[in-house]
Amino acid sequence: MWKTILRRLLIMIPEIIILSVLVFILAKAMPGDPFTGSINPKADASQIHHLMRVNGLYDPWYQQYWNWIVHLFHGDLGTSYEYQEPVTTLIAQRGMNTFWLALFTMILTYVIGLPLGIYAGSHEGKLPDTLVRVYTYITMSIPFFVVLVVGVWIFGYTLNWFPTSGSIASNANGLGSTILSRLQHIILPGLLGALFGTVNIVQYLRSEVIDAKSSDYVKTARSKGVSTKNIYQHHIFRNSLLPIAAFAGYSITGLLGGSIFTEMVFSYPGMGLLFLNAINYRDYTVITSLVLLYGFLNLLGTLLSDIILSIVDPRIRVE
Amino acid sequence: MSLLEVRNLKVHYPIRGGFWNRIVDVVKAVDGINFSIEQGQTYGLVGESGSGKSTTGKTIVGLERPTSGQIFYQGQEVQQNKLRNSVDYQRNVQMIFQDSLSSLNPQKRILDIIAEPLRNFQNLTADQEKLRVLQLLDIVGLSADSLYKYPRQFSGGQRQRIGIARAVATNPKLIIADEPVSALDLSVQAQILNFMKKIQRELNISYLFISHDLGVVRHMCQQIAIMHRGRLVEVGTRDDIYNHPQHIYTKRLLAAIPETNVNSRQEHRQKRLEVERIYNEQQAKYYDSNGAAFALQPVSMTHFVALAPTD
Amino acid sequence: MAAKIPEVTQISESDLVRLTQEARQEATPTFGKIIWREFKNNRLALTSLVLVITFILFVIIAALFINTPKMMTTNIMDYYSKPFNKNFILGADSGGRSIAKQLIVGSRNSICIAIGLTVISSTWGICWGMISGYFGGKVDLVMQRVYDFMMILPMLMTIIVIVTIIPTYNSVTLTLILSVFYWMGTSRLIRSRVLAESQKDYVAASKTSGTSNWKIIFREIMPNISSLIIVDTTLSFAENIGVETGLSYLGFGLPLGTPSLGTLIANANDPENITTYWWTWLPAALEIIILCLAISYIGQAFRHATNASQQ
């Protein structure tokens, strides 16, 4: 077990290195330099040249890459010239918003997905099953950003049930109303994300339940008089619990990717919106840091899922 | 000169393990075996599952890579790593598989299945090819309307006939038959076996007949080799093996043939238990400390048994 | 050598035509027929199919008659012209540009990119998966590591960064950039199926029949996973419509002045547009929803048909 985890960690190292090189190349390929905007606009070319030299921007690329990595390890991601703040501070603020939204979405996904999957599986071929299959068919077909736009139009602007932008109301004071206001802002995007993100869980659980129902061990248990409820609780559900939990790790990739759309539509000040603004302002330090961070989070997510799955099924442990 | 000679063939599979995935051990699926097959002869290779008999067959047709050892075809050595590239060898050594359904591509029509080796080894026009396939279907006793059908439309016995038609399409000299009838009903088994014999007479083919069923082997083979744990434990003619078995493993296999005479059931059972007892007691005399059989020693002109060195 | 077979069979060349004809009458329905039968019995699927094909043909042909630069010029007089009037069936946007015309050209652009993306990324993914699954071993290991790495890349962000780096690009380069990032799902699906298929005996039989590896991959294994490929490609087409439009919605898809369904929906980013001037974005959103649902449903029908045919 520990060997598997350790080996899996070893495989991560080259992935992180390649990711960082890629991000570094992308950063170098971006037009412009990081100083033209950050200092006095009247600064002449020689001053910029001086700054470039001092900051090592004329060094060979491997030297620059090394410097960048060393800074990374010291937790120094550079300074955003758009916000004139260290990138770490910036990401810490926005990161919390994205984190809460993602956590809320994930919890809702499980709350909706688990019962639907089991219900559909146990009523295979009947009306509830058909309805659930229509639901998964619809949610997996429609592009998510269209859902968000239509959702904010109906429930935000037209019905006025939910706020349509921001992460907290400006007049929220005190702990209670702060939490309430934050919750109010993430309910609609979280709900939409969850409703349209359950496909994997529902389909997996449904087929798992259907398989289990016809498996010999369930038939034996049933013939011995174990109650249906007991069978579901102790056999079927328990067996599929860990694989289902493993989805959480993989879904981080989806949640992070989706966060760009969600935060755009709801003007929700998280990392996705920060990224889009940074792109528009050519705020390179922020862009590279975010790409690197998202890649790293994806890596952690898959690592987590792989570990969970290797606990469940020794056959898929990394050879 | 033998048609095919196998010399000291070894097929070992590495077991990887430990943290760095290094080779920690090897499975000796085939561990140094020698035998030769004559033209027109059926050579039986018998053993329990896992004894390495299928691996031997697959290595000879080139589906597995030998770790070491040599294969001579008509006196000429076939390069191990080029087994599959030698056109002449490929055309002359074909294979029949155990699972007739899985060995026929479900998405291809019978015409295309049987014509596959023809297309690879012979330049025929479409009409010649079709005629040839029709002739082959006729040889294996299937009607011409099978031509455009798919494998799933046939019964197990019919599918095995199609597999045989494909194997004989290029007029091979040797066919490796890997448990060709084990998956079939008993009544169909006899049909297929007789029919394999008939083709053998007509086309002068040699078989390497791989089986775990000594009853079937007795019906088919003149020469028999018994394989256990990757090594040959006894080699001889049909008479040597069935009437004068020397190795305890051979005796045990023979005792396991079901007795059809109900009256002597009790007696047969006694005999089987006795053989089993001897087998358990005398392990040390017939296997070395690693559990591998000893090298073969001649007992008569035709009969070889793996016995402990006598010195 | 070839003379041997006619000696043991009575079929001669004169029978060829007659027997072939007989066989043809007995032939089984093809894959195309099975799918046709499914669509004939499933009215909704047939409607979807007709709808999607007619719509694609309509926008491609209609877009030929629209002068895009002229359509995209601002015309203050028609500022937010309401829909259903005689000049603008679907109204106009803030620049007085016809929504209906933009919708047609935008649909053409978005659908063509989605088709191109599907063709390139699916072909790539299928080849990747088949090679990786068939050869296994070190080839598979290396290819899987590349796959793993692509999976952890923050795709959307990387694409946006690349799009901003590249100074000039058009719909072709955009399609190529997107294709680099959207083949993994297909490759994974195909690999796992090919892995299972390669273990079957018909692959071994093809090897012993002298068929080359590439031929085995594309001519033997591929037909067996063709149903999977058709279903997956249809479903990825529906998915890929969302890829370019999503990117264009964010403002990083097609260059300025090239309408896309995504840029039309991006009109909804303005809080005033989304409520008051709903016609600027809602038709495009509805079109994507209906199109994706229809294509996806066709995919489901394919899946149903192929599942039924395999039983």
Automatic annotation (TrEMBL), chain A:
First-listed, main subcellular location of the protein, grouped into a coarse class: membrane
Q: By its UniProt entry, which SUPFAM superfamilies does this protein fall under?
A: MetI-like
Q: Which PANTHER family match?
A: DIPEPTIDE TRANSPORT SYSTEM PERMEASE PROTEIN DPPB-RELATED
Q: Which InterPro entries match?
A: BPD_transp_1_N, MetI-like, MetI-like_sf
Task: Give the protein family.
Answer: Belongs to the binding-protein-dependent transport system permease family.
Compartment(s) where it occurs, according to its Swiss-Prot or TrEMBL record? Cell membrane
Swiss-Prot/TrEMBL keywords: Cell membrane, Membrane, Transmembrane, Transmembrane helix, Transport
Domain ABC transmembrane type-1 as annotated: residue spans: 95-305
Q: Where are the transmembrane segments?
A: 9-27, 99-122, 134-155, 186-205, 241-266, 286-312
Organism, by scientific name, is Bombilactobacillus thymidiniphilus
- Lineage of the species this protein comes from: Bacteria, Bacillati, Bacillota, Bacilli, Lactobacillales
User: Quick check: keyword Transmembrane in the entry?
Assistant: yes
Q: How does it sit in the membrane?
A: Multi-pass membrane protein
Question: Highest taxon of the source?
Answer: Bacteria
Query: What is the recorded name of this protein?
Result: ABC transporter permease
Q: Which Gene3D superfamilies match?
A: MetI-like (1.10.3720.10)
From TrEMBL, chain B:
Matches recorded under CDD domains: ABC_NikE_OppD_transporters (cd03257)
- Domain (ABC transporter): residue spans on this chain: 6-254
Xref: SUPFAM superfamilies: P-loop containing nucleoside triphosphate hydrolases
Q: Which InterPro entries match?
A: AAA+_ATPase (IPR003593), ABC_transp_ATP-bind (IPR050319), ABC_transporter-like_ATP-bd (IPR003439), ABC_transporter-like_CS (IPR017871), Oligopep_ABC_C (IPR013563), P-loop_NTPase (IPR027417)
GO molecular function list: ATP binding
Tagged with keyword Transport: yes
Name the keywords, alphabetized: ATP-binding, Nucleotide-binding, Peptide transport, Protein transport, Transport
Entry's PANTHER family?
TRANSPORT ATP-BINDING PROTEIN (PTHR43776)
The family note in this entry says: Belongs to the ABC transporter superfamily.
Q: Under which name does UniProt file this protein? A: ATP-binding cassette domain-containing protein
From TrEMBL, chain C:
Keyword tRNA processing appears in the UniProt entry: no
UniProt name for this protein: ABC transporter permease
The main location is membrane
Q: Where in the cell is it found?
A: Cell membrane
Entry's CDD domains? TM_PBP2
Is-annotated flag, keyword Transport?
yes
Chain ranges of the ABC transmembrane type-1 domain: 107-299
Q: Which family does it belong to?
A: Belongs to the binding-protein-dependent transport system permease family.
Task: One Pfam family, please name it.
Answer: BPD_transp_1
The protein's UniProt keywords, in alphabetical order, are: Cell membrane, Membrane, Transmembrane, Transmembrane helix, Transport
Q: Record's SUPFAM superfamilies? A: MetI-like (SSF161098)
**UniProt xrefs under InterPro entries:** BP-dependent_transpt_permease, MetI-like, MetI-like_sf, OppC_N
- UniProt source species: Bombilactobacillus thymidiniphilus
Residue ranges crossing the lipid bilayer per the database entry: 44-66, 111-131, 151-184, 247-266, 278-299
Q: How does it sit in the membrane?
A: Multi-pass membrane protein
